[in-house]
Amino acid sequence: MYLPEALHGVDELGHGSIYNLQCGINSVRRILHIDMDAFYASVEQRDNPALRGKPLAVGGQPTRRGVVAAASYEAREFGVRSAMSMAKAVRLCPALVIVPPDFARYKAASTTIFTIFREVTPLVEPLSLDEAYLDVTENAWGEGLATPVARRLKDRIRAETGLTASAGVAPNKFLAKIASGWKKPDGLTVISPDRVEPFLQQLPVDALWGVGPVTARKLRARGIERLVDVRAVEPQALRDTVGSLADWLRQLANGVDERPVVPNREAKSSGTENTYPEDLTDLSFIRGEIAEMAPDAVAWLTRKTLLARSVTIKVRYSDFTTITRSHTTAPTRREADVIARALQLLDKTDAGHRPVRLLGVSVHNFCGELDPADQPDRLLPFGADVD
């Protein structure tokens, strides 16, 4: 993670580093972004001393098209990263130790961590098992500054879980997230309100969360190297370059991010996907796999007492081309409805004609319970799909 030279004056605190700045202006929010360090891999190393100090990857076996779910910092020194194929990871690091994921243990550690967060503030916005935003403008510890809260949280997490976390402190979510990645592992980085502009002045466009390599190349082709260069671009030219992202980039270029910390964010979708060790070519088998995935989504809807208007399938072919097909109609959580919709969507793909390596089924566009009299007795006519 890049951080401008203007913020490089630091005081060493032993457990990482902290900028000698304080968010002491009462009118601004005090936002933390806390991110556990190599979470899955760190849990494995904590629980098995024999794994400590070794390059470790959590994920599937390379012979079965496994993917790296998490990599220890020792493995990262060899270039091993999350979402990389395990086969590539082993080529980069022949001594890599691979362990299968144990989500029950990761969930248990996550529950402890989030319990600590919520003891300090109810304004906790989970992003994943190991990552969250916290608004500590007001907090149970009565701290007037965010930095002591972040430090105490890091210490509590270490004491109660044996794991380390990195924290970013800033006036908004955008800056806090970037700051948390600066001094990993076990870092603490603070961007105070009076240092926001120096920070923005030197921030490259590809340091922005959400701007990937393709978008960054488009921006650089127009001479936009730094985030603040966005300020000088004509609005229409920016829209032509990045589309709907233009207004958001312009706000961030001015250091503006008004998004509140939203606790208990509602799920937007739920589903299952599988990557197969061998390409699937038999259409009847593929249909069977889709039919077996759909009940998982229905079970989730039942637990949440929700109905879904939309069903989506995902198909990745052997050449890694990935397509989705989606259909929206009357709300349901009937297993037969979801299976039927998913199979109809499958008919709109090349499955059976092109080898398939991944399949997925998900539901989204949720609503609450309907009156029984309003529930459809049968699947409504099938409409247009959305790629």
Structure description:
The chain is an alpha+beta fold and 387 residues long. Helix content is 33%, strand content 24%. The strands form 4 sheets. It has a 5-stranded mixed beta sheet. A 4-stranded antiparallel beta sheet has the order 11-14-12-13, covered by helices on one side. Helix 11 (283-304) runs antiparallel to helix 12 (335-346). It is globular.
CATH homologous superfamily identity of the largest domain: Reverse transcriptase/Diguanylate cyclase domain
What's the Cα radius of gyration? Answer: 23 Å
* N-to-C series of helices and strands: EEEHEEHHEHEEHEHEHHHHEHEEHE
> What structural class results from the helix and strand content?
alpha+beta
Q: Counting H and I runs of at least 4 residues, what is the number of helices?
A: 12
Main β-sheet description: 5 strands, mixed
Shape: globular
The CATH architecture category of the largest domain equals: 2-Layer Sandwich
CATH topology of the largest domain: Alpha-Beta Plaits
Relative helix content:
25-40%
Total strand segments: 14
The end-to-end distance, rounded to whole angstroms, is: 34 Å
Beta-strand content: 15-25%
Number of domains: 4
Strand order of the largest sheet: 7-8-3-9-10
Which CATH top level class of the largest domain fits?
A: Alpha Beta
Unreliable residue runs: 1-26, 370-387
The overall pLDDT, averaged over residues, is 84
